Batch of 3 targets.
Target 1
Amino acid sequence: MMIPATYNFSVVRGSAGPSQGLTLRLKNNTGTAEAPVLENMDFDDVRLSIYDKPVASAAKALIVRPTIDTGEIVVTNPGEAEVSWVPTAEDTRKLLIGPKNYYELEVRSSNDEIVYLLGVITGIGGLNDDIE
């Protein structure tokens, strides 16, 4: 059993680009805690599901769900199993202000679905609406 890592981060609402997203390398530890051996995970798709309430809540609403299949998550370094969510301004405007955006990053490979990472995204700002 793999226990997902937890990572909380902030995003400036209305901003776009790699500095506002998330980049990570998908690795398995095939060694021990004392002598880790990190190997690339196999994956067919990666999904980042962002909700307005903790995922266990029955009344949650999906804010955004970028995936590799939709092209909203990209493989930035195949040799290192590195993937990136590079959000658009439209994506970040959908985030709620404050630490109210709960996410899970799921890695899919063949029949396996593994929650690899989870946490809270804090939405900052939001006055920039791009209206000219």
Note: The longest helix spans residues 89-93.
Target 2
Amino acid sequence: MNAFAASLAVITGRGASGSPAFQLDHPVLYGTAFSIAPDLFVTAAHVIRAAQDEGKVALARLTPGDFQILEVLQAEMFENVDLALLHCPHLNAERLPLQMEPLDFLTEVFSLGYPFGLELDTKTIQLRAFKGHVVSRRTLTHLSAEPAGYELSFTPPAGLSGSPLLALSHGLPRIAGVVLGSRSIEYRESRLEVGIALDVATLQELQSRILRTILPSGFSNFRT
């Protein structure tokens, strides 16, 4: 897996899309996205909302020495599951297979993305990796659709939202979910902080105009 090509930064900017003239409007990487089919990408809906408030949304492949930044032409929001589908033509990214079968307790998982990824003092961009295990598989009751998801043993920082939750199958990474953030579980004076990820199987349930337009056969075109 090429980590930079599989983990794309969500940014805002201006200028000529796809060229060095495309300039960041704000020194912020709003979150992380990943590819599910040619020209189609996934991230968290709250990541796109935050970026849209600031300007023109783009995805960036930040492979050292081989940057590519392209404008998102369509963003379809599914607020009830905190998911966004993005149409971003001609962005070259690595597509990983999907893990449709549910993960069990203590399955090792990891994610890569851009939390606090733009360091202004050193003028560098950092891709960071986080690893842990499945704490539980549960209904995500804080989302109105109450989709299936996971609690994670690591707490995703801001900027990791929208990244793929990865699990190894026969030594190869597969996308098992979409990292959404974290939640606190409190009992009396004790508190447990866990990460939250949406089960990737939720993609099968989306009624999407982008999928109908770009991939007329819908989910079956990119299911693996």
Note: The chain has three helices and 16 strands.
Target 3
Amino acid sequence: MSTEKPIKAKYFEKDVQVLRLAKGALPLDHKTASGLLTVWDQGNVQEPQLLGFGGTRYEVVLPGGHTSIRIVFAAYKDSVVALDMQQQAQYTLAVLDRLAEIWGNVAHREADSIRYEYRNPGGLGRLQDAVSQELGSCEIEAPAQHRQAYTVLTNPLEKYDYGTFCYFAGVPPAGRKAIQHLLAAPASDVIRAVLRSTNPQARVYAVEAMLELERGGASISELDRRAMEKIVELEIPISVCEGCLVYQSTAKEIFARAGHE
């Protein structure tokens, strides 16, 4: 039985309003996080997450009628460096066809959403340089078989928790799946690169993975050990999941609980 619902004019008007609000911020070159938050202040703005080293991730949801627009973006010292935007529909997918015409060729239609993506290579490079300045550099070309895991673990826009068995279904978060893939290889050079990720949860996963490799007989260089120590001492919130419980912690507290003080 189909769950597709008819398009209602008053709801569609709201969908168009939030589309124009979201699209009105484009183009994003030279835009600031504070400026975007001012433009989208009528949306549901989530608590920003510090990425460390001058980086911050933001999330805003603009509610429409049949749809909503979820916006995730990262900034380095207030300059926007990356952004993903999705206008999603659940029960009235046909509305996306009409909205896609208004978006034009700046966004692309997917099965149940319309997606817009922005990356500023220079800005992302400056954010990565800030991380590397503190943690050391480890530039690699991830092998094809590890590229998906590497992308999940090095994307500042990826949102996942640190944990093993989480949520109602007791499943591993995306970051856990990705680091387990690298450990199974084992892809030690890729894990070393993830230590320098712009994603804070990924860095914690990488420290844990390096310690596991060491227990298996691998040696850790002084450069990597100093990076691991700095990550553990970094006083920024890490999102942790244990079953259905999701809470904020620090890397130091995480490893203290695990017996790795």
Note: The mean pLDDT is 95.
